[in-house]
Structures are given as C-alpha cells and as structure tokens.
Amino acid sequence: MTEGTEAGPARFVALLRGINVGGHRKVPMAALRQVLTELGYGAPRTHLRSGNAVFTASPGDGPDALGRELAAALERRFGFAVETLVLSAEQLSATVRRCPYDTEGLDPAKLLVLFLDRAPDPAALARLDPGRYAPDTFRAGEREVFAYFPDGMGRSKLGDALVGALKGHLVTGRNWRTVMKLLELTAEQPG
C-alpha cells in the first residue's frame, strides 16, 4: 500500500532514464509537468533537467503501474521510449534510511544511488571483486545499489561494472544531493 490517506493523494517520485544528455532524447521539464497533469496527477514539480519529478496520485495507484502509464504517455508525446521508474515517497524515504554510508562525512556528488525496478541479483554483484575498483565501493540495498566514488566517477571502472552486473534491470542513478532534494520535495505540501 502506498502512503497517503483515504482523504488525500499520495506523493510519488518519477525518475526518467537517459533523457536530455548527449543532444538527443529531449524531454523539457515543462512538458514533463504537462504530461503529468494531463494524466490527472496533481502538483507536479520537476528538479533539474535530468528527468526528476514529484507528483501526487491516488493512494491506491501503485508505483509500477504509474511508471508504465507515464512511460506510455511520454512515448506518445515525444515519439521515443523513456524508461521510467516511479517510487512512492515512502519507498524513497526507505531507500535513504537504508543507505549504508555515513552521509555526513561524504561529498554528496560522489555518492550514487542506482535505483532498480526489482531487487538486484546477489550472485551477479558478488562476482565483482571489490579490490579491483578500490577506492570505489558499493553496497546492495533492496531495490537499489549504493556506490561511493571518493575520487569522482569520471575515471572509475566501477560504474560500468555495476551496469554490467545489473543487466536486464531498469537502472537509473541519482547522486545523493539529488536524492535528498527529491525527498525534501516529497515532504512539501502540494499547492
């Protein structure tokens, strides 16, 4: 059951994968808010240009169904598929609570959360030799993988290794700063 009450809507977060990078697959944030509104979702807000939105919907609507509905609407509107992952505000909050890293001592731009459509395969992740990627590290969560890149992601081989280990999943990453901003937006009263 998603959060919300019988009398009011629940808050959700949409994470769009692979848009507005490299000069193709453009989805303007104003258009994303318009699509959310046309679907009947309330109080749409976007954050950054990379496909982050917070909105309200009926408490009975599940995140997976909302993600499929939004992805279909985006494809109709823009003419290309947009992989879309939707989380309830409660799921996002639980992800933040599960973070195994001491976030107070870390640069939030260097801590990445890879959000997944389902639980990661522990065997696939176990095949990654942590020593090969040091000082970069990762830890699996329930439907996410946390990765820390103390020297930045630019030259790290861990990102590509994780993508390989998570093949077959819908995966989209957000740095900790963005995750915390989205959590903050889910806590705001719509209006």
Contiguous helical run count = 7
- As a percent range, the share of strand residues is 15-25%
Oligomeric category: single chain
Shape: globular
Q: Show unreliable segments.
A: 1-5
List the strand order in the largest sheet: 2-3-1-4
| Cα Rg | 17 Å
The mean pLDDT is: 91
Question: How can the largest sheet be summarized?
Answer: 4 strands, antiparallel
Q: What is the H-and-E element order? A: EHEEHEHEHHEEHEH
Straight-line N-to-C gap: 24 Å
Q: What percent of the residues sit in helical stretches (DSSP H or I)?
A: 25-40%
Count of extended strands:
8
Structural class: alpha+beta
Could you give a short description of this structure?
It is built from 7 helices and 8 strands. The protein is α+β, with helices and mostly antiparallel strands and 191 residues long.
Q: Can you describe what's shown?
A:
The chain has 191 residues and is of the alpha+beta class. 34% of the residues lie in helices and 23% in strands. The chain contains seven helices and eight strands. The protein has helices at residues 29-38, 63-78, 89-98, 122-126, 130-133, 158-165, 176-187; strands spanning 10-16, 42-47, 52-57, 84-88, 111-116, 137-140, 144-148, 171-175. A four-stranded antiparallel sheet has the order 2-3-1-4, with helices on both faces. Strands 6-7-5-8 form a four-stranded antiparallel sheet. A hairpin with a 3-residue loop joins strand 6 (137-140) and strand 7. The radius of gyration is 17 Å and the shape is globular. Residues 1-5 have low confidence and may be disordered.
